[in-house]
User: What shape does this take?
Amino acid sequence: MKLYEAIEELTAKLRKKISYTDIAAALDVTRQYANQIKDRELSFSQLAKLEKYFKVNLANANKIMKIKTDDDCVTIPILGEVSASMGYGVTVYNEQQTATYSISRKLVRDLGLTSGETEIIFAQGDSMLPTIEGGDSLLVDHNRREIYDGKIYCVRIEGQLYAKRLQKIPPHTIRVVSDNDKYRSFEINLEKEPTYDFEVIGEIRWWGRVAR
Assistant: This one.
């Protein structure tokens, strides 16, 4: 689904004109950028943001944005220009889907993936070595946002994307951990810093690389 098509559908369902200023607020981008992408296909995460912000279901969203099933495989969208840093953070400018990747239905069941909530992005940097290498594919389940100690998550911190292990320190502190000893762990106290920009995007359920 292209952005202008989403605007038409939102306008019809909400019975009021949806402006690019409204879209910019929903997608957390500038109005200029929202206008620039009006003819582009929206990624699943962008569609999800629009649905959440406007509290409607975009019934005509392109099915390729969601996990599709056939007899043997499921197809997962790839966001080729989205990277999660394993260092000092990555700013994402383009969340467009660039391809798809098919995996077996058994692997989907084994990983407990959520239909329509899974995307593939890429790792950048070295702070999660030796576990994850720069360039690895990262399978992110957006439905798994609750923090369990020791698991690896895609997180947004102060506008930057990271791939990090997280640890909960009750009642309100999150420890952000790198596997590479060159990088220090740090803590975020969400009670003392309520406006701190921190969000768990999803758990990284699988990562891999092409043999070289």
